[in-house]
From TrEMBL:
It holds the Pfam family ATP-synt_B. GO terms for cellular component: endomembrane system; plasma membrane; proton-transporting ATP synthase complex. InterPro entries: ATP_synth_b/b'su_bac/chlpt (IPR002146), ATP_synthase_B_chain (IPR050059). The chain crosses the membrane at residues 38-59. It comes from Acidiphilium multivorum (strain DSM 11245 / JCM 8867 / NBRC 100883 / AIU 301). It is a single-pass membrane protein. The lineage of its organism: Bacteria, Pseudomonadati, Pseudomonadota, Alphaproteobacteria, Acetobacterales. It is found in: Cell inner membrane; Endomembrane system. This is ATP synthase subunit b. F(1)F(0) ATP synthase produces ATP from ADP in the presence of a proton or sodium gradient. F-type ATPases consist of two structural domains, F(1) containing the extramembraneous catalytic core and F(0) containing the membrane proton channel, linked together by a central stalk and a peripheral stalk. During catalysis, ATP synthesis in the catalytic domain of F(1) is coupled via a rotary mechanism of the central stalk subunits to proton translocation. Component of the F(0) channel, it forms part of the peripheral stalk, linking F(1) to F(0). The b'-subunit is a diverged and duplicated form of b found in plants and photosynthetic bacteria. Belongs to the ATPase B chain family. The gene is atpX. GO terms for molecular function: hydrolase activity; proton-transporting ATP synthase activity, rotational mechanism; proton-transporting ATPase activity, rotational mechanism. F-type ATPases have 2 components, F(1) - the catalytic core - and F(0) - the membrane proton channel. F(1) has five subunits: alpha(3), beta(3), gamma(1), delta(1), epsilon(1). F(0) has three main subunits: a(1), b(2) and c(10-14). The alpha and beta chains form an alternating ring which encloses part of the gamma chain. F(1) is attached to F(0) by a central stalk formed by the gamma and epsilon chains, while a peripheral stalk is formed by the delta and b chains.
């Protein structure tokens, strides 16, 4: 196929000046001049040599460069895909680790809060028991002090009542009656 293409190109190249001359459109292609024919022949030879140089040497090298570039791009794309997949895998693992750490820390926090609440309940109960005992003891002391004070007030109340009645009435009142009145008042509260 290459040879056929070359022969067709050479034939077309050879016929072009003759056709132009026949039509009278290109006077510079005057083939009666011996230099014009030689120039056309050398031009055809140079074109054929240039074609073979390009076809055998330059174009395969250019094709090789293009193929190498295509392979390198494909390799780079595959490397990028692998790196992206690894990065996505690492992100998933990181998110999973963060979620596990969050759940673990929330569990530890809940456990610490529950332990603190339990200690606070125990301390509150112990403090309430101690305060209840102190309150009961203080109430007993107050009750005892009140009874003692009330007991100490009875003789004073008898003496004061006797003195007041003696001054008001001018006569001494019987101590039994004063005792009854003081006892009645002390039982009323």
């Amino acid at each position: 196929m290459r040879r056929t293409t070359i022969l067709l190109a050479a034939t077309a190249l050879g016929l072009t000046p003759a056709t132009a001359m026949a039509e009278g459109k290109m006077p510079q292609m005057d083939f009666s001049n011996p230099l014009t024919g030689a120039q056309v022949v050398w031009m055809a030879v140079i074109m054929v040599v240039l074609y073979f140089v390009l076809a055998r040497w330059a174009l395969p090298r250019i094709g090789g460069v293009i193929e190498n570039r295509h392979n390198r791009i494909a390799t780079d794309l595959e490397t990028a895909r692998r790196a992206k997949a690894e990065a996505e895998h690492a992100v998933r693992e990181l998110n999973l680790a963060i979620q596990n750490a969050r759940e673990s820390s929330q569990g530890a926090i809940a456990e610490a809060v529950n332990a603190a609440k339990e200690r606070a309940r125990a301390q509150t109960a112990a403090l309430n028991d101690r305060l209840s005992a102190q309150i009961a003891s203080a109430e007993a002391e107050i009750d005892s002090a009140r009874r003692t004070a009330v007991g100490a007030l009875a003789p004073i109340a008898r003496d004061v009542a006797s003195s007041l009645l003696h001054r008001l009435i001018g006569e001494a009142v019987e101590p039994g009656r004063i005792e009854q009145a003081v006892s009645a008042l002390s039982t009323q509260g």
